[in-house]
Design a protein that fits this description.
By secondary structure, the chain is of the alpha/beta class. The chain has 16 helices and 16 strands.
Length: 499
């Protein structure tokens, strides 16, 4: 092909945002890669091509220089410019552009599991509204304080802004230890704390570090769906366990899945049912795990928010066998975009876990850790928790009052003494039937309110023993009392239409 033909039908665009030399470079590169300019082909002299294209010679020189630097062209002063003869002969491009219909080759089993494992997990989308579940009140966070702390950290350039330890910022780990010891009874040292990019990364690391393919893992159903994904990708066998008024049914699990190697539990506040694991169940779980050398992951995702008394002591505080791995997140206390979580590992596990963390992402972002350390040390963290606890208590009361007044005959409330969400079970109609959860949730979304059907939290592998009465999960922390009351009116209208 004559080089002039490359530009005859589609000339360079002089008004485009891309500079002319970049357009010329891209056009020549594409022609070489697709065989329209063969290896060894001679290109016009820079003055000649500049005249043909009516551009400056500098434009052509810049394009040629870039192509030469990348190995497409060779030549020199007095020698001419050629497509490098050492390049393999390329196939001619098809007449019309085509897009590959699928992957180059199928994903391997592990890759396919990873790509599919979070497919059922929903992500928050669009503006915050009633009744977005598990969402803190962003209107309550002191972003201006955070911004000032962040700017102060950036004005202190030094080694602390370089690479850090996989465990995370030492000062933050020290402050978290003090906080967890005082508020949750967690027995730990800073060396046991590993900062992670959210609790989801913590679960991924623990699953891949501690589980062999085929190992059984107890998971609550209904329960947090994101917990099963890393276990599944690690090749674990998911063992669903029913939940009742006392929390995870440990005796049932021990009878049906006695060989499990790990337990994922939310003892302080079960998602989504809202129940708290009884002391008898906690002790039974610890005895079983100790006797069977099984790990327990204690997910303490929103324990700061208890409205009828102080936060309960952690399961980790009762552990004497070194089997409890305590995980927490700051997404619910501060704001989800922060993506900071932490693990308190048994002493012997801390170093292997830190090394595993380094494999995944070296360390979590250091600057947010430094800012959070200052946020805690200067008292902003404690003030924010007190402020949000009071605000969420008011929002919770508004939701309970509105439901009692408008929907008491249709819905019964689950436990409401902790957390950011409320589980509501449908009352059967006169015919003994329950409303369709999915239909109600979609109709609610169509009217501008956001909630989740209880079935969303049921594990697909769960059997009849894990069944619960149908219902809805409503978050009450994301918006104020006025929006909550309006939302209940909208939900009442939806239930009238869909009943």
């Amino acid at each position: 092909m004559h080089i002039h033909d490359l530009f005859a039908s589609v000339p360079l665009e002089r008004s485009a945002a891309m500079p002319l030399f970049r357009q010329l470079y891209a056009r020549l590169k594409d022609a070489i890669l697709h065989g329209r300019l063969a290896p060894g082909a001679r290109l016009p002299a820079t003055r000649e091509l500049a005249q043909q294209l009516q551009v400056s010679r500098q434009t052509v020189l810049a394009a040629y220089d870039q192509l030469t630097a990348e190995g497409y062209l060779r030549g020199g002063v007095g020698q001419g410019t050629f497509v490098d003869a050492a390049l393999p002969v390329a196939r001619q491009a098809p007449a019309a552009p085509s897009v590959a219909a699928g992957l180059l080759r199928p994903l391997p089993e592990r890759g396919a599991a990873m790509a599919a494992s979070m497919a059922r997990v929903r992500y928050h989308d669009g503006p915050v509204r009633a009744f977005r579940p598990s969402m803190p009140g962003l209107d309550l966070f002191p972003f201006e304080v955070w911004r000032k702390l962040e700017m102060r950290a950036l004005r202190r350039p030094g080694p602390h802004l370089g690479y850090g330890a996989p465990r995370g910022d030492l000062r933050l780990r020290e402050l978290l230890c003090a906080y967890l010891r005082a508020s949750r009874g967690v027995d730990c040292t800073p060396e046991q704390v590993i900062i992670t990019s959210g609790s989801q990364q913590a679960l991924y690391l623990l699953a891949h570090l501690l589980l062999a393919p085929g190992d059984g893992v107890w998971v609550e159903s209904p329960g947090y769906q994101g917990a099963c994904a890393p276990m599944t990708v690690a090749g674990a066998r998911i063992c669903t366990v029913p939940v009742d008024a006392e929390g995870m049914d440990v005796a049932w699990a021990a009878a049906h899945h006695p060989d499990a190697r790990m337990v994922f539990a939310t003892p302080s506040h079960q998602l989504p049912l809202g129940v708290t694991m009884s002391l008898a169940r906690r002790l039974a779980l610890l005895r079983w795990a100790g006797a069977n050398k099984a790990w327990i992951i204690e997910d303490d995702y929103d324990s700061e928010y208890r409205y009828t008394g102080p936060p309960l002591a952690s399961l980790q505080s009762l552990d004497r066998a070194g089997c409890v791995i305590y995980t927490g997140t700051l997404s619910k206390v501060l704001f989800p975009a922060l993506r900071l979580g932490y693990v308190v590992a048994p002493p012997a596990l801390a170093e292997p876990l830190a090394h595993a963390k380094a494999v995944v992402d070296r360390h979590s972002a250091i600057l947010p850790q430094m800012v959070l350390a200052d946020f805690i040390a200067e008292g902003h963290f404690a003030r924010h928790i007190r402020r949000t606890r009071d605000a969420y208590a008011e929002r919770r009361a508004a939701l309970l009052d509105a439901i009692g007044a408008r929907l008491g005959e249709r819905l019964r409330c689950g436990p409401s003494d902790a957390g950011l969400d409320l589980c509501l079970h449908f009352r059967p109609g006169a015919d003994g039937r329950f409303p369709d959860e999915a239909r109600v949730a979609q109709a609610a979304l169509d009217t501008g309110i956001e909630l989740r059907p209880l079935a969303y939290y049921a594990n697909p592998q769960a059997g009849p023993a894990c069944a619960v009465d149908p219902g809805l999960v409503l978050g009450f922390s994301a918006v104020g009392p006025a929006d909550i009351r309006r939302g209940v009116e909208q939900l009442a209208a939806v239930l009238e239409r869909t009943a």
